[in-house]
Each structure stands twice: as C-alpha cells, then as structure tokens.
Amino acid sequence: MSDQPPVSETLIQAPGRPRRRPLRAIRLPRRGPLSFLAVLGPGLIAANAGNDAGGIATYASVGASFGYSLLWVMVLITVSLALVQEMAARMGAVTGKGFSELVREQMGIRAAAFVMGTLLVANAGLIVSEFAGIGAAAELFGISRYVAVPPVALLVWWLVTRGSYQRVEKVFLVLTLAFFAYPVAAILARPDWGEVGSQLVRPSFRLDADYITLFIAMVGTTITPYMQLYIQSSVAERGAGADTTAAKVDAYFGSVFADLISGFIIIATGATLFVAGQQIETAADAARALRPFAGPYAQIIFGAGLFGASMLAAAVLPLATSYTVTEAFGFEKGVSRTFREAPVFLGLFTGLIVFGAAVALLPGLNVIELLVFTQVLNGLLLPVVLISILRLVNDPDVMGSHTNGRFYNLVAWATVAGVVLLSSIYLLITVLGLFGIEVG
Q1: In terms of Cα–Cα distance, which of 393, 81, 102, 106 is closest to 225?
Q2: What φ, ψ does residue 13 adopt, rounded to 5°?
C-alpha cells in the first residue's frame, strides 16, 4: 500500500481530530506545471478556481451580449472579492478552524443546517455545470455527451475513491492553461482600448432580464462560496496564529490576478463576438473568441481547456462538499471508509456525482444557459454565506483583536446589500414575466 494518503484524506479537519488536514483537495496548482502558483498561496488558487466552466461561460456571455459595458462591475466585484477572501483567510489564520466547524460552534446546529443546506444547493448546481462542461467539451471533438458523460462520471468517482486522482491531476492542470489564451486573444483582436477604459470607470445599468441575469451571474461566479471554504481551510491548515499579513497579501493578489483574466475574457468576446453581433449559445460559439490567437485551432484549444477545468472541479467539488457538510454535523467521513463506516459521507459524495451527471444529460439542455444559471444560483445564495462570514469575523470571542474594521464592514455589507437588491430585482422581473409583463 502506498505511504501517501489518498487525496480525499487530506481535505478537511474534523472536529476533535487534529490529525486530519483541512481542505487540501482543491490543490489545483500544488504540483506539476502550475506548482509555482502554490508559492503565492491559497488566495491565488481559490480566486482562479472561479474561472471554471461556469465562469468562462458567464464572462463570455457578458462580452458577447453587452460588449464592454459591464466591465465596471468587475472593478467593484474585485474589491469585494479581495475583502471577502481576506476575511476568510484571516479567520483561518486566527482560529485554525474551517468555516463549517466555526458555524456549528458559534452559531448553533440550526444555523449550521441552514448554511450547509445553502452550500449544498449552490455546490450541487456547480457540479451539474461541470459535467455539462465535460459534455460540451466532448461535443467539440465530435463525441456525444450521452456517450462521454456517464463513463467520465464513473471515472471521476473511481479516481477519487481509489486515491488515484492525484496521478492524473497534472494532466487536467495542463489543459486548463488553454484559458490563458484569452488575454492574448483580447490584445490580438484590437479592441477599442479607449472604450474599454471608459467602460471600466463609467457605471451603466439596464433594467432588463438578460442584463440583471448576467450581472448576478458575474457576482456568483466571481465570489463563489466554494472559494471562501477553500481559502479558510487551507490557511487553517497552518494552525491558529498563522501570519495574517501574508494571508492578506495573498488574498488581494489572487483576487486581482484572477479578475484580470476574467476581464480579458469579456474584452476578447466583446471585441470579436459582440462586434460581429454573434451571441453565445454553444461552446463552439464561445471558442470563436480565441480565433484571433488560435485561428482554426480555437475550438480545439477551448475544448481542451473546458474539459480540463471541468474535470478538475467535477472531482473536487463533490468531495469538498461532502467533507464540509459531514464535518458540520460530526459524521464519519473519508473515501477510504466503507459505506458501512461512513454512509452519509460516501452516500452524499456518490449522490452528487450521479445527480450532476444525470442533470447534465437531460434532453434539450442548453449548456451555456445552464452554466450561466448555476452562477446566477450562486449569486442568489451568496448573501447567506457572506452574512455568516461577517457574523463570525466580527465576533471578538472568535477573532479576538482581529475583527473587521469599519471599512471592511462597509464594503462587505454593501456587497451583501447589492446582491440582495439585484436578487430582488431579478425575482421581480421573473415574476412579472410569468404574467406576460416585460421589463426593459
């Protein structure tokens, strides 16, 4: 038997079991071609995890539908993301505990059940989007999603439960490098940089369903609750009393770097698809934005990146979700356990994979719409997680002298209020639409 524990065994620290290491399963760039990212820390890794299948679809749809007019939102989201990531990292550094453990200890079992239920719904939607991304990538290479998704889902389950996932992780990491072609494609597309700069600093707003939907999706895919779970648990791995200054710098740098990539995706699609009046309805449409860089190979590069990013998240998300939920309630966990030893953990892990793959195979499914919808769902549920983080990080009994200052709370609560307002507008427009009343 190998001396190295399976990837699942290093995920999240169980209450009262300090030997288990926290959420290390999201170790995207820990080894191999992206190992240099690990030097900068979990903040960079967590922020870039948002540029997965759903993130790419959302940013590409924003650029194709509205050009550069939503770039100003990225500026605001980047500030919010940096502060939220820093708060989560600071909690991990000060307490040495993961998010779900703190929620249960400080807010009670009922609050933990509500917050974990919210995370379960949000992450289940993301898991569906990853398997939809796998299917879309397969179709770019001429393989039906009905043929590709079931065996891939079985493969993901087998790799993780047999501790073999880390052996192929580097392959998926290499494939995700394809998305770094977007900044080059954006430059080669020769956008109107004056207009780009103007839209970055000139807020505009449209009261229509499509605009609000993509607005919320941008928030949901950029400030994903899953990212806060990762960065807090990863920093907590170092134990209470870790360097909060280093965690802060790491969180800020990671947020800015990740959102620069996101912004270039919007610019690339705005300079190519929006200018040409083309909408994104399929993965092949999204790939067209890479033509200034890749020419006839754009579809291949995009397909490879989409497959790699989706496979990474399809393996990690259900595993991390299962650990987070079972940790909150003290259930036995670990993929090395049998179903008899850890029925809740293994049942939830298996169920999430089956659910994700099954929904992704529904007939008549519009993959791009599904990917964007899952990010909208994350945006709608985000306030629950943010409010929980704010309650914990402002509790002197938890954080001691490291509670938030006024500026942090102002920005954080403004983010919550903004998301709630957007969600209310979105729900109102949706309800009016049911009665045939169109807004905008």
Answers
A1: 81
A2: -75, 130
What is the rounded distance in angstroms from the CA atom of residue 56 to the CA atom of residue 309? 10
Q: CATH code for 7-434?
A: 1.20.1740.10
Q: Mean per-residue pLDDT for 152-175? A: 79
Q: How far apart are the first and last CA of the chain?
A: 63
Q: How far apart are CA 341 and CA 336, in angstroms?
A: 10
* Residue 324 near residue 100 (C-beta atoms within 8 A): yes
- Per-residue pLDDT of 29-54, as tens digits, reads 344 434 444 445 667 666 666 678 88
> What is the C-alpha separation between 157 and 224, in angstroms, rounded?
24
Per-residue pLDDT tens for 301-342?
999 889 988 888 888 888 888 888 988 888 888 777 888 888
Question: Is the pLDDT at 140 greater than 90, yes or no?
Answer: yes
* Local confidence band at 28 (pLDDT 50, 70, 90 cut-offs): very low
Tell me how far apart the alpha carbons of residues 394 and 320 are, in angstroms, rounded to a whole number: 26
77/415 Cα distance (integer angstroms): 8
Measured CA to CA, the distance from residue 440 to residue 438 in angstroms comes to: 7
Burial (Cβ within 10 Å: 0-12, 13-18, ≥19) of residue 79: middle
Of 377, 268, 312, 408, the C-alpha closest to 48 is: 312
Question: Please, are residues 148 and 135 in contact by the beta-carbon 8 Å criterion?
Answer: yes
Placement of tokens 């998704």 in the chain: 149
CB atoms within 10 A of CB 411: 17
Following DSSP, what letter does each residue of 74-87 receive, concatenated?
Answer: HHHHHHHHHHHHHH
From the number of C-beta atoms within 10 Å of its C-beta (0-12, 13-18, 19+), residue 174 rates as: middle
User: Looking at residue 48, what is its pLDDT?
Assistant: 64
Residue 339, helix vs strand vs coil: coil
Please give the C-alpha separations between residue 257 and each of 244, 262, 323, 379, in angstroms, as whole numbers: 20, 9, 28, 21
Q: What is the reported pTM?
A: 0.84
Q: Is the pLDDT of residue 113 over 50?
A: yes
Domain residue ranges in the chain: 7-434
One DSSP character per residue, 192-223 reads -HHHHHHHHHS-----SHHHHHHHHHHHHHHS
Quote the pLDDT of residue 439.
67
What is the model's pLDDT at position 51? 74
Give the Cα separation of 399 and 265 in Å (integer).
38
Q: For residue 272, what are its two tokens?
A: 């190519």
130 vs 321: CA distance, rounded Å = 14
